[in-house]
Design a protein that fits this description.
The chain has 20 helices and 25 strands. By secondary structure, the chain is of the alpha/beta class. The longest helix is centred in the first third of the chain and has 25 residues. It is elongated and about 105 Å long. The strands form 9 sheets. The protein has a 4-stranded antiparallel β-sheet. Strands 10-11-9-12 form a 4-stranded mixed β-sheet, with helices on one face. The protein folds into 3 domains: 208 residues, HUPs (Rossmann fold, 3-Layer(aba) Sandwich), CATH 3.40.50.620; 166 residues, Isoleucyl-tRNA Synthetase, domain 2 (Alpha-Beta Complex); 138 residues, Isoleucyl-tRNA Synthetase, Domain 1, CATH 1.10.730.10.
Length: 714
């Protein structure tokens, strides 16, 4: 053995050895317990960052542990086309060349993005391997694989046939920059300073931050408990500039404390106003189009951007004496979660899922403990969201993604839904000219089917009917054996986006939860606890850290010091410290093996000894194994890693090895036994150095790998 652990010398060869040995590929055995985890597919639009490194580490630790326990273990990898996320990233690349999406037709743009993602899809696989991910690459899936798309189409068609999908004009969150609608979950909020304008509407004064939308006003509403306006209900207010009469109505949604307590009702551009408008059968007048330009207004404002129109309208209202006062206001404003531009609520014709029945299924599954959140705080958040979800807008006005299999009849204007193949004629009038919808699915709709879709696709089962229950199809071997999966591990910030939707769609499609446990991990922060970002200059490149200190050191740094569900502080110093631990483990090996001429003679059975020091270290080993096993079972990976570290460095090396140097030959069997088992319980966390040492000192032959060794029980 060299004097120090040289990760560059071993890591690549060891990973190739694992892969060639078939160690990642589970062999289904109905007499053994199954363990299955589906990888949250990284977006195929860029290099992996330190957050990806954390999820890979957490999942690989769990996977290697269950594999060593003798369970039939499948960790199924994949990548995500990522819809708007990828198109947004690609558009930024186009902008560097002075181009935009508008310079290309849809087919050309789609092909360009497809080529872009294929490049990063390959890079992602290489980077996952560099992180030591022991997943089954023979089952790898991509969200745009043809078999995955077929399953997505089947789910959509089944939901439509069951009356859970409809197309309608409803208020949606719209980003005029990205050019698409979003669901309720895909908007962020920012604090913003604005102006609050008090406008003279004749009989009543209203307050608004959006004077440019007054031309879409259809009423003025007051709260029925507001005694100030009792006598005005039923009368008409006067819309300034255009002098249109607006009915004064009552509605309990009006906030008495905001402004004057009188609210201008603009159904086309505000969610609350839309609800009030629907209850009162008010017309819907849109004055902002999908590009953020004014329409349906007096001619002088048509074509202006929202902010330019606001300036012009305010100026005209002031000239008419219709602005009573202007106040400063600090409030929350909805913004696009991608480019942070202001969201424009607008009424649009979209595809929606009626989530009410699906949310009830998910709530019951959580209540009945069919799916368990390992951290109680996330269960509470999940229940809150499920109780407050609105119908899910699943259509996106973008090129990149799975195109919605809906075909509109040019004669009766009705939609025919298929499983992807264009119908020969309309389902309603037999007319044969149908045009496919140009919208694509929200990427969360397709990825929401990921657990059952990946396993069915792995089985090459795409010709089926929903619901698909276990053992319904004998050829669905992976699905029948591994579903429901054991655990879903992912970032806590996509709990409502993805985890809840997987539960809802999984229950709908299969009648069972898609996974039994939900383990959510926190963010990676710098050593000061600050969020890692390019603007702060504190980015930690995982691949650079691997090159400098080795994969094992990075992995230990990512699980050290914090529960999985909490944010973890990481610095280069942390990683360097774990590299020192790698060297310590290596040097222990040099000491243990130095007196052996034939490494095949190393004893791995419990030594018979009456020596006090030997008995002490053996008892400490047994205790550590039990505690580490319990900690990993409870997903307390930091606790497990720190216990292994403490045992190897302090109890085994500092105390025991130092104490037996004078009786080396007598203690050798104990040394070998304790060291071999120490390597086993360390392997899930630091797989490379443990595999290298195992091959040098404990392997019976080249096929004897620690990745396939049995987890010690004592």
């Amino acid at each position: 053995m060299d004097k120090v652990w040289d990760h560059k010398k071993y890591e690549s060869d060891i990973y190739n050895l694992w892969e060639k040995s078939g160690s990642f590929i589970p062999q289904i055995d109905k007499n053994k317990k199954a363990f299955c985890m589906i990888m949250p597919p990284p977006n195929a639009n860029g290099d992996l960052h330190i957050g990806h490194a954390r999820f890979v580490t957490v999942e690989d630790v769990i996977t290697r542990y269950h594999r060593m326990k003798g369970e039939v273990t499948l960790w199924l990898p994949g990548t995500d086309h990522a819809g708007i996320e990828t198109q947004y990233v690609f558009e930024k690349e186009l902008a560097k060349e002075g181009k935009s999406r508008f310079d290309f037709d849809s087919d050309t743009l789609y092909k360009m993005i497809a080529e872009y993602t294929l490049k990063y899809k390959g890079n992602t696989e290489k980077q996952l391997k560099a992180l030591g991910a022991s997943c089954d690459w023979t089952r790898e899936k991509y969200t745009l694989d043809a078999d995955i798309v077929k399953i997505v189409y089947k789910t959509f068609k089944a939901l439509f046939d069951d009356g859970l999908i409809y197309r309608g004009e409803r208020i949606v969150n719209y980003c005029t920059h990205c050019g698409t609608s979003y669901s309720q979950l895909e908007t962020d909020t920012i604090e913003k300073d604005d102006k609050l304008y008090y406008l003279d509407y004749g009989l009543v004064t209203i307050a608004t931050t959006r004077p440019e939308t007054i031309f879409a006003d259809c009423a003025v509403a007051v709260n029925p408990k507001d005694t100030r306006y009792k006598k005005l209900v039923g009368k008409n207010a006067i819309l300034p500039i255009v002098e249109r009469e607006l009915p004064i109505i009552e509605n309990a949604l009006v906030d008495i404390e905001f402004g004057t307590g009188a609210l201008k009702i603009t159904p086309a551009h505000d969610a609350v106003d839309f609800e009030i408008g629907q209850k009162n059968h008010l017309p819907v007048i849109g004055v902002v189009d999908e590009k953020g330009k004014m329409i349906n207004t007096p001619e002088k404002y048509i074509g202006l951007t929202v902010y330019k129109a606001r300036e012009e309208v305010v100026s005209d209202l002031q000239n008419l004496g219709k602005i009573k006062k202007i106040e400063n206001i600090h409030h929350l404003v909805a913004v696009c979660y991608k480019d942070k531009s202001i969201i424009e609520p607008r009424v649009s014709d979209q595809w929606f899922i009626n989530v009410g029945p699906l949310a009830k299924l998910a709530l019951s599954a959580i209540k009945d403990k069919k799916v368990t959140f390992t951290a109680k705080k996330f269960e509470k958040i999940a229940i809150h969201w499920l109780k407050n979800l609105k119908d899910w807008n699943i259509s996106r006005q973008i090129v990149w993604g799975i195109r919605i299999p809906a075909f509109k009849c040019e004669k009766c204007r009705k939609w025919t839904i298929t499983e992807g193949i264009k119908p020969k004629s309309c389902n309603y009038c037999n007319h044969n000219i149908l045009v496919q919808d140009t919208d694509t699915f929200d990427t969360w709709f397709s990825s929401g089917q990921w657990p059952y879709a990946t396993l069915l696709a792995s089985d090459r089962i795409t010709n089926f009917q929903l619901p698909i229950s276990k053992n319904k199809y004998k050829d669905a071997k992976d699905f029948n054996y591994f579903y429901p999966t054991s655990i879903m591990e992912t970032a806590y910030d996509i709990l409502p986006f993805w985890v809840l939707r997987m539960i809802m769609l999984g229950l709908y499609a299969t009648g069972e939860v898609p996974f039994k446990d939900v383990l959510l991990h926190g963010l990676v922060r710098d050593k000061e606890g600050q969020k890692i970002s390019k603007s702060k200059g504190n980015v930690i490149n995982p691949l650079a850290m691997i090159d400098k200190y080795g994969c094992d050191a990075l992995r230990m740094g990512l699980v050290w010091g914090a529960l999985v569900e909490n944010d973890v502080s990481l610095s280069e110093e942390n990683i360097r410290g774990q590299r020192n631990f790698s060297n310590k483990i290596w040097n222990i090996g040099r000491f243990v093996f130095q007196n052996k001429t034939n490494k095949k003679n190393l004893k791995l059975s419990i030594p018979k000894t009456s020596n006090k020091e030997d008995r002490w270290i053996l008892e400490e080993l047994e205790t550590t194994i039990k505690k580490v096993s319990r900690a990993i079972d409870d997903y307390k990976l930091n606790t497990a890693a720190e216990m292994v570290y403490d045992f190897i460095w302090h109890k085994f090396a500092d105390k025991y090895i130092e104490s037996i140097k004078s009786r080396r030959t007598e203690a050798q069997p104990t040394l070998e036994y304790v060291y071999s088992n120490s390597l086993k319980i360390l392997h899930p966390f630091m797989p490379y150095v443990t595999e290298a040492i195992w091959s040098m000192g404990f392997a019976k032959d080249k096929k004897d790998l620690i990745i396939n060794a049995s987890w010690p029980t004592k």
